[in-house]
TrEMBL record:
It is found in: Membrane. This is Aquaporin. GO terms for molecular function: channel activity. It comes from Euphydryas editha (Edith's checkerspot). The chain crosses the membrane at residues 20-39, 79-97, 277-294. Keywords: Membrane, Transmembrane, Transmembrane helix. The keyword Magnesium does not apply. InterPro entries: AQP11/12_channel, Aquaporin-like, Aquaporin_11/12. GO terms for cellular component: cytoplasm; membrane. It is a multi-pass membrane protein. It comes from the Eukaryota. Belongs to the MIP/aquaporin (TC 1.A.8) family.
Length: 320
């Protein structure tokens, strides 16, 4: 549901002479959120059939997500990662509090089918609604950008886009899958532990993952271990190198198929089939894997270990 941008520029200073464009971007995001909120309230009051209402709410949520993320690209490129992080953190809290049962994320419905909480037909319809909302919102964004109210929007409306996929398709799909799996495991754990301020914690974790991947994309962590003692029969040497944030260099790190399709489908650098394999098949496979990994005893032991038998959370300030 979040937008990890491969195209973010590490510009951490805000020039006061260009502060006006930030106001323009802020107003656009506020306008988009307000329109989505009004549309959501209208649907809730006027549509009586629950499933039809949910389909429309999914479309609205996806449109709001993608519309705001288009503008977040502008914010990040011109005002730095810190400003981007503040916007994203605030938006994720807003979305969590206002979307209700809508998720704007296709693989959550697949998880529901696997766990017996939904059927395939309804899941496909929800995905269709999300994809429709995510694709249609670009016309709204393009109309706003065409006005070129600020310098940061100049020539953006019809600018050619390039794909974020920088590696072979299979490799990109694996990266998206593993990252999505990790995100879903963290989300499930937090949901079951249910600490106080869970929404804020979840938003902070999601924002941190995005920002860390951008800030430390070139960082390499190394670990070396040697055992060459005189009494040893065998000398052992282990060297491990981890490239932090490489998901953003490899595939863009979207972790949401609808978001990736809205922002990058049809861009130069990959075909639609390659896009589908990486951002749909890869992400959904990672999500499905998380369902089964979460049931492993080692993970369940950790989750259950955070709650006493009487139901009182070990999180000191949480009210049960």
């Amino acid at each position: 549901m979040l937008r990890p941008l491969n195209t973010l520029k590490l510009n951490n200073t805000v020039n006061k002479s260009t502060f006006a464009p930030l106001v323009v971007s802020t107003l656009f995001i506020l306008l988009t959120s307000l329109l989505a909120h009004c549309a959501r309230r209208f649907v809730q009051k006027s549509i009586k059939e629950p499933f039809v209402r949910l389909l429309l709410e999914e479309a609205i949520a996806a449109a709001e997500l993608c519309g705001c993320c288009f503008e977040l690209i502008i914010v990040a490129d011109n005002f730095g990662v810190a400003t981007y992080a503040i916007f994203l953190f605030a938006l994720t809290i807003w979305w969590s509090l206002n979307w209700g049962d809508a998720t704007a994320c296709p693989y959550t419905h697949i998880e529901d089918v696997i766990e017996g909480r939904g059927d395939i037909r309804k899941a496909l319809l929800k995905i269709w609604a999300e994809l429709t909302g995510g694709l249609l919102v670009f016309r709204y964004v393009q109309m706003y950008w065409t006005l070129e109210i600020s310098e940061t929007h100049k020539n953006k409306a019809y600018e050619d886009c390039t794909a974020d996929l920088q590696v072979p398709v299979l490799y990109g799909a694996i990266v998206e899958g593993i990252a999505t799996c990790m995100c879903r495991l963290a989300s499930r754990s937090l949901s079951d532990i249910n600490p106080k301020f869970a929404t804020a914690i979840d938003s902070f974790i999601g924002t941190s993952l995005v920002v860390a991947g951008v800030l430390y994309r070139q960082t390499v962590l190394t670990y070396q271990y040697e055992d060459s003692s005189a009494n040893a029969d065998l000398s052992v040497s282990v060297y491990c190198k981890v490239h932090v944030g490489k998901a953003f260099d490899y595939s863009g790190g979207y972790f949401n198929p609808v978001l990736a399709t809205s922002l990058k489908a049809g861009c130069e650098g990959h075909t639609l089939m390659e896009h589908a394999v990486v951002y749909w098949l890869g992400a959904c496979a990672g999500s499905i894997l998380s369902v089964y990994l979460y049931k492993l005893p080692v993970i369940q032991k950790y989750v259950r270990g955070t709650t006493e038998v009487n139901g009182d959370s070990i999180w000191a300030d949480k009210e049960d």
